[in-house]
């Protein structure tokens, strides 16, 4: 949460990248000031708070790093090719037997492969997401 004054300072700060680190700097300064004023009684408590804040800041930095590096196009192309190849193989491999041939245990023949279609919709939808 920011006050209007803090929001103005945050917006006026010029940075070519994300400014996720600014509140962490503010927190560190306020925590040090609170220690000097006696609001935080023990340096161990201050150190624990700053360690937790640094851990959270490093997680934000890691998340920023994931956003910074894009997934190479080759990976998406390989996954797309693998999904469509899998379903092409399913279309051939999951066809039902001809009931006129009289195979034992294959009395029911479905004209629409329901589960293969469901699987295709789930995988293709997942791929698009």
Automatic annotation (TrEMBL):
Belongs to the anion channel-forming bestrophin (TC 1.A.46) family. Calcium-sensitive chloride channel subfamily. GO terms for molecular function: chloride channel activity. Its main location: membrane. Forms chloride channels. It comes from the Eukaryota. It is found in: Cell membrane; Membrane. Coiled coil: none annotated. The gene is Best3_0. PANTHER family: BESTROPHIN, BESTROPHIN-3. GO terms for cellular component: chloride channel complex; plasma membrane. Keywords: Cell membrane, Chloride, Chloride channel, Ion channel, Ion transport, Membrane, Transmembrane, Transmembrane helix, Transport. It comes from Nothoprocta ornata. InterPro entries: Bestrophin, Bestrophin-like. The chain crosses the membrane at residues 74-96, 108-126. It is a multi-pass membrane protein. It catalyses: chloride(in) = chloride(out). The keyword Cell membrane applies. This is Bestrophin homolog.
